Prior knowledge:
Layout lengths: L1 H18 L3 H23 L6 H12 L6 H19 L1
Helix pairs in contact: 1-2, 3-4
Organism: Rhynchophorus ferrugineus (Red palm weevil)
Main location: nucleus
Keywords: DNA-binding, Homeobox, Nucleus
Amino acid sequence: MDSGLSETKTLYEGLAPYLRFPETQLRTLQTVTSSSISRKKEIKSKRIKFTEQQRTALELEYKKEPYIEPIRKAELVEKFNVAQRAIQF
């Protein structure tokens, strides 16, 4: 990952005279890229871990389709998808 970042930085430094990027913009590019990488790591560390009981409750609530209006159904689908993703990691 870092090698790709350094290659990109080197590429931009090489093209800077032709593209008229000041050095500050090059530094900003690297900072933005670094912060997005750290943000992904932060999000990964905050993933929710559901217990088996919570997952079962979500599945049961999700399957009661005939009694749920469409908006509520969409909310449950989103919760269920988030729960499934959290369980996978």
